[in-house]
Write a structure and sequence with these properties.
This protein is of the alpha+beta class. It has a domain at 11-132 and 206-272: Beta Polymerase, domain 2 (2-Layer Sandwich), CATH 3.30.460. The protein has helices at 11-31, 40-49, 65-76, 139-160, 168-179, 183-194, 242-250; strands at 37-38, 60-64, 85-88, 101-105, 108-109, 125-133, 204-206, 218-219, 226-231, 234-239, 271-272. Strands 1, 2, 3, 4, 6, 7 and 8 form a seven-stranded mixed β-sheet that branches. Strands 5-11 form a two-stranded antiparallel ribbon. The chain has a two-stranded antiparallel ribbon with strand order 9-10. α4 crosses α5. The radius of gyration is 19 Å and the shape is globular. The protein starts with 10 loop residues before the first helix and ends with a strand.
């Protein structure tokens, strides 16, 4: 890997760094018997492009809650993914309020302008999402969904309320941050709510922590049936029912390229250290 100290990262640089992180994550998961699957645009890229979507600059995987909790514990106990990789989680980082794990490369630096508080240290990342039981449509399940919805929206404010930013939505976020300032306690509360139904007893599972309520429920058995899919110069795991997942998330025509106006790169202006 060519490191251009002080220079901004190109899209090719992002892809190379993320691929290195993901290779380390894959090896760590295999070594520790942790199930994972490519999800969202990363899975779409694997199927449609045999690698990254050419204009995409993020990478996402999902891990069933029991394996996810074990991964957090292993990383927090000092287990390393590799020489240059470290993790961010609300349990180990002061201003990191996301519910997910973020694996970063310490040879890079990213300073997103869309977050309220600067995180102490954040490099180019791969995001790891917990896959949880989808609350049932029972009185208790509906009550849990309501509590999750409320707390996830407060969490959204904790992350994205920006001083000086215009707009009524941002004003409400700033107000909620002042009235309900306990961001870390909220992270722990959301995780408790997500765990109330054990993953193994769930009929449907998904990315329940997602702030946009885009859960895309899947049978729990999907995460017991994984296959390797080609990705750039290697292969990564995905649920074997990847076709129905992609149809659910992106529609039946997911193999068709979107118009150029929708080929958006979400670059956060990372640079080499």
């Amino acid at each position: 890997m060519e490191i251009k100290h002080g220079e901004f990262l190109s899209l090719d640089d992002y892809h190379e760094v993320m691929l290195g992180i993901m290779k380390a994550v894959h090896s760590f998961c295999v070594e520790n018997n942790i199930r994972y699957s490519l999800i969202y645009g990363t899975l779409l890229g694997a199927v449609r492009h045999k690698g990254f979507i050419p204009w995409d600059d993020d990478m996402d995987i999902g891990i069933p809650r029991p394996d996810y909790d074990r991964l957090v514990n292993l990383l927090n106990s000092g287990k390393k993914l590799g020489e240059h990789y470290y993790h961010l989680h609300y349990t180990n980082s002061e201003n990191y309020f996301y519910q997910i794990i973020r694996i970063c490369d310490d040879r890079t630096e990213v300073n997103p302008k869309y977050v309220r508080k600067k995180i102490e240290k954040m490099g180019v990342w791969v995001d790891i999402f917990p896959v949880d039981a989808v609350p049932a449509l029972t009185p208790a399940g509906i009550f849990r969904r309501v509590r999750l919805f409320i707390n996830k929206n407060f969490q959204n404010a904790d992350i994205y309320a920006i001083k000086g930013k215009k707009g009524i939505c941002n004003k409400f976020k700033l107000l909620s941050v002042k009235i309900f300032p306990n961001a870390k306690k909220r992270n722990y509360l959301i995780d408790r709510l997500l765990r109330e139904t054990p993953f193994e007893k769930a009929k449907k599972v998904g990315d329940v922590q997602d702030k946009h309520e885009q859960v895309h429920p899947r049978p729990q058995s999907d995460y017991s049936n994984l296959v390797l899919l080609p990705f750039e110069d290697t292969s990564f795991y995905a649920i074997s029912a990847w076709d129905s997942y992609l149809r659910d998330v992106y529609g039946d025509d997911y193999m068709q390229l979107p118009p150029e106006s929708k080929r958006i790169t979400h670059s956060a202006g990372g640079r080499w250290l």
